[in-house]
Amino acid sequence: MSDQKRLFLVDAYALIFRGYYAFIKNPRINSKGEDTSAIMGFMNSLLDVIKRERPDHLAVCFDKGGSADRVEMYEAYKANRDETPEGIKTAVPYIYEILKAMHIPIMVKEGYEADDVIGTLSRQAEKEGYKTYMVTPDKDFAQLVTDNIFMYRPVFGGGYETWGIPEVQKKFEVESPMQVIDFLGMMGDASDNIPGLPGVGEKTAKKFINQFGSMEGLLANTDQLKGKMKEKVEANGELGLLSKKLATIMLDVPVEFNAKDFELDHPDVEKVKEIFQNLEFRRLTDNFLKTFATEATAASTEATAQKEAPKAIPKTKSSAGSGQFSLFGGDDADATETVSEYTRKTAETTSHFYQSIAPGMATKLFVKNLLNQTSVCFDTETTGLNPLTAELVGIAFSWEAGKGFYVPFPEEKEQAQELIEVLRPFFENEHIEKIGQNLKYDIKVLAKYNIEVKGKLFDTMLAHYLINPDMRHNMDVLAETYLNYTPISITELIGKKGKNQLSMREVPLDKQTEYAVEDADITLQLKEHFEKELGEANTQKLFDEIEVPLLRVLAAMELEGINLDKAFLNSLSEELNNDIATLEKKIYDAAGEEFNIASPKQLGVILFEKMKLVDKPKKTKTGQYSTAEDVLSYLAKDHEIIQNILDFRGLSKLKSTYVDALPLQVDETTGHVHTDYMQTVAATGRLSSNNPNLQNIPIRTERGRQVRKAFVPRDEDHTLLAADYSQIELRIIAALSQEETMIEAFKNGEDIHASTASKVFNVPISEVTREQRGNAKTVNFGIIYGVSAFGLSNQTNLSRSESKELIDTYYATYPKLRAYMSEQVDFARDNGYVQTVLGRRRYLKDINSRNAVVRGAAERNAVNAPIQGSAADIIKIAMIKIHEKLQASDYKSKMLLQVHDELVFDVYKPELEAMKSLIKTEMENAYKLEVPLDVDLDIGDNWLEAH
Question: Which of 29, 90, 512, 708 places its Cα 20 to 30 Å from the Cα of 116?
Fold first, then answer.
């Protein structure tokens, strides 16, 4: 490498935004509810540059107050920029604090952009004999490139590329980097709101630069242009010159390059560690310590890392921007890559030992070794995603990081069953812990082979859900986030969706082995991480006693499924066709013409241009009239056509989503519909139902309720029983708030809505009207969700002033309820989360947001999440207890469905009385509150009758 000293100037906001959006699908939220994505992304990038380059001199440059000169020239400069995300605003003070602790100079000047600061410093450093590398993805910096000034650009997919003069010439098709200013001036820049020349895009700008050399050259030779382009350029010459000025990076900012101040110094390690600890950056702390370790310390750290994570990546030294670099700068140094969003490990760059097991004696010896383990991760490979129809292709096992084995299965069913029998002692051994990612799927697949998975379970997907409920929980995301590792993609093996996609059975054995064992190996390594984090978040008990036992319950329910009366649905479909046709005619008659009711654009024109139903109709971002549900619902009571349109939409959705779709989802073998319950979707802890979703069948409309009639017992010897918690969320909020008036009402068995109406309207409970009870009911449930006077007036016949008065009276009647709600918000502000009665956390990253709308939503969640989440926890406990009793006493009756506060059972008629007693007892005693839990039971020949 040259002895010429090197200066690295980091464009702070460019890397902060880049880091923030790199995690946008999986934000990094700590236990205080803080969104640390931008900080983590920026620090990963900064440490990556330091590790790779070991620069002599370094500074981080920020904007402050925007560019005063450019705004003075052109008032609309950057005026179209969206507001900076809250997660970035809150990140910047932390980044300042970290940089100060690292002794890295922060260069910023009020009224100037970071581009101008970097441009000025790079020119000053060049005069003093430095090579300068501008660390930014922003193409505008290309105008500054010289023989000694380079762009050092992070690229998508990992690594960096260095742009010198040749790269800029090729990229922009210019002779000199200075012509990039003309290029940007001609084509403009939408992100900065630089107008450019109308009609001139990238291709035309390059052509003009090649032909005329500059903006001034173009404007002096417009006689060589033709037609409309000539007219546009001549008419907008001043705009073009202004755009060039706006695109020019300033080189005269009042900042000074003092070489000594910019030297890369030793950081205040303890201070940085303290900040990282506060932010809960465990991995980033390790990364930081390795980056700034001495060679001796690094070697020791590396040896430890080798023991903990055998998948190490050897690195080699190189020059700036050309590849990967020695961590410690020595010519022969080898080092291990640490966490960086740009340099993830893969199977190709990682040492590992994955082996397939041959049939016969090798398999028996393998099982003998398997049975000597205390904890094993396994992962099934199958012919498809539906566990009811998928067949085993192989099973991978791993009990030591970096190692694992794959047992391939024969296609012939009898041979496959013979092989599974050899493995049965492992699966049914109660002393060996079984680890997996989404174990419910594997349990259901193995159940088809008459295998029960016994022993303690550890599901990494469920563990991560409790640690960080708002993130995604699929294995690829977890591997990249926690292990800095990108697993082999399934599409690499079987291809993308379509007729050419392979079955896993068609994939060569060596590739099956590599893919399957990697999954088991990575899941095993994730388990080690999550075990510690469950303890730190105080959710280990919730994991062990609720979520893991529940996955067995859900697997049994999903395998059982529920019987469906297809003939009834077919007849209901015909009735809906008639209803929809009647509504269509009413809508066409009112509109005076036929049109596509399902088209928001056509509907908007009819309602708001032709019929002029409102003076100032709301519009979408694209400029068309909004016909969203909330917009139309507000108008429905005043316009019959609107109500008919809403009814039309509701019936059309009901028909397509349920009535016509459900018969197609009946399993041919069982004759039942088998929903899939998801434990890791709703952040509150509620279960969600999928394929088909049986939790969202409309219950408030007559036609919606009729769909439930299609769900029937398995045969004449069975009946359906529905058990529903009565007003459980109100009971929970009464108990948690210690509101004696509500508690007493529940203890006395009073109608809580009538009781509330009696108090807030100041009338005897016997004189409460139906309307008063209805309004009280709306407030009772609305309070949990933060209902406003505006919202209440929309849901009732009350005016806004009457609604406000009712809410104020409600809070005056139940003062402890209001105090509890305030306490929950205060707790969330201090801790970043709220929790249920069982300690399930809901992180609220926006609870301290400066944006009132965003903060208000978080405050409502602070009140609602513990209530809704506690209800979810309680019914989960009941499900586990009931399932245990059904198994222990060998009942023929089965638990089939869970719909929020309701459980549905297929009850063997001779067991009916015993089942009623068992279900009511376990549900009402699932959790002890100061308020008694009450369960309503009913039976019927279909779900509607039983509900």
Answer: 90
